Amino acid sequence: MKGALLVAGTTSDAGKSVVVAGICRMLARRGVRVAPFKAQNMSNNSVVTLDGGEIGRAQALQAQACGLEPSVRFNPVLLKPGSDRRSQLVVRGRAVGTVGARDYFRHRRELREVVAAELASLRAEFDVVICEGAGSPAEINLRATDLANMGLARPARLPVLLVGDIDRGGVLAHLFGTVAILEPEDQQLISGFVINKFRGDVELLRPGLDRLTELTGRPTLGVLPYAEDLWIDAEDSLSTVADAPVGRPRPPLGAEWLTVAAVRLPRISNSTDIEALACEPGVSVRWASEPSRLAGADLVVLPGSKATVSDLEWLRRSGIADALRARAAAGGPILGICGGYQMLGEHIDDPVESGAGRVDGLGLLDLAIEFADPKVLRRSGGHDASGIPVRGYEIHHGRVAGTGDPAWFEIDGQPEGSVRGPLWGTHLHGVLESDEFRRAWLRSVAAAAGRAGFVVAEDTSVAAVRASQLDLLADLIERHLDVDRLERLLTDGAPADLPTLATAALPTSATSPS
């Protein structure tokens, strides 16, 4: 088998990432040398790759589905929003500046060359490349600068599977309308549909699918059922709903639960850090967006941020800053990760990210932070104060300029993080995925919170949970998608006889050809 295809979506969060991961895992289990690719991602959930850059977390998960280490090749362009109008531009894993929509338009030719070169390289090396689109190809106002949807598919002649989320409602109209609004040349590559998150009897949907085929000339390759057990490694913080639970809590092993409130910052980054806690039986994790949601929690987590100073000000406006100070005064456990760790300190001096200069932190740790270029990007390993091994990765501009608190870890031979009673802080993302460390630390949290009846499991493995979710995705693909037709698309490309829908309204001259 040799080929490539693009999985596009009718909307953001339609299920593109999980469908790509499932296809990749399914093919890898069959012995196919497969790689993922997302030309351009917009997400503040990122990881550090083996080659020293950063990519979207979804592509790291897709790489794992393929049995590969994450690489900047799999996501050559990453946009990390720091506000509603500006994003940090990361190219081949390295930050190259901050751009707005109009600035980005000027970069399109250079970025298109980067994307085309990386995709060609992957196709030469692997049997199959499964590409993921971004947002929706129906965003025709962005067609001229599109790198990840039809702007990728047309020059590479990639067949396109269009995924729609039926749980949102109106999925048949979304699928039809997405095809209809495209230029005729783009329509020719839309080769079939996938329905995601279906609940109930699929035969009730069949008449609608048949009519969709009559109207578009394109088949539905499958209907994926809603799977409640799929939750780890969410694509981006847009799907992190304020005040919603994380995962599906399993009953406690002892007499008591341990409750966790994670602050849902406006510019939250690496929100997936808390998912390791949600893997534990008896640990109930919820997002919190206002002070009352922190009350009664045994642990509060202040996660990372792409706009640390701005989110710190939001903590003050929302009243959460006062709630955190009151909690610390009462001896309540608090964990800060990366940007959240920086906010817990005495002050932050930031001429880089916000340009705000020196601002006061929450004053809960004896910690001074200074922002500087270049951004720190590294995988890190070491141990905590008791010698338990830990691993994680760092993505931050802020450096510790001074601290009077004991270090939490020794990482690569250097002190890292802070501890002050039941307050902990670290720049390490992913540290809670170190199973032995997480168990020992949760015992400390439970003791500080007075939860003597909470029992920590001895066998929870975050890596095993993630692997089981990838296998579940592959199982869903194999059971509910027409895999034979999928493989024909990979080897033969888009069918030559796909009809053009007459409702396509925009003339070709309205957009820039790819």
Automatic annotation (TrEMBL):
GO molecular function: ABC-type vitamin B12 transporter activity; catalytic activity
Biological or metabolic pathway of the protein: Cofactor biosynthesis; adenosylcobalamin biosynthesis
Active site feature: 338, 429
Coiled-coil residues: none
Keywords tagged on the record: Cobalamin biosynthesis, Glutamine amidotransferase
Cross-referenced CDD domains: CobQ_N, GATase1_CobQ
Alphabetized NCBIfam families for the sequence: cobQ (TIGR00313), PRK00784.1 (NF001989)
Species this protein is from: Nocardia tenerifensis
Signal peptide residues on this chain, from the entry's feature table: none
Lineage top rank: taxon: Bacteria
Record flagged with keyword Signal: no
Gene behind this protein: cobQ
Membership in a protein family: Belongs to the CobB/CobQ family. CobQ subfamily.
Domain CobQ/CobB/MinD/ParA nucleotide binding residue range list: 6-232
Name assigned to this protein: Cobyric acid synthase
Cited Gene3D superfamilies: 3.40.50.880, P-loop containing nucleotide triphosphate hydrolases
GO biological process terms held by the UniProt record: cobalamin biosynthetic process
Domain CobB/CobQ-like glutamine amidotransferase: 259-436
Reported function: Catalyzes amidations at positions B, D, E, and G on adenosylcobyrinic A,C-diamide. NH(2) groups are provided by glutamine, and one molecule of ATP is hydrogenolyzed for each amidation.
HAMAP family, per the entry: CobQ (MF_00028)
InterPro entries in the record: Class_I_gatase-like, CobQ/CobB/MinD/ParA_Nub-bd_dom, CobQ_GATase1, CobQ_N, CobQ_synth, GATase_3, P-loop_NTPase
Keyword Repeat found: no
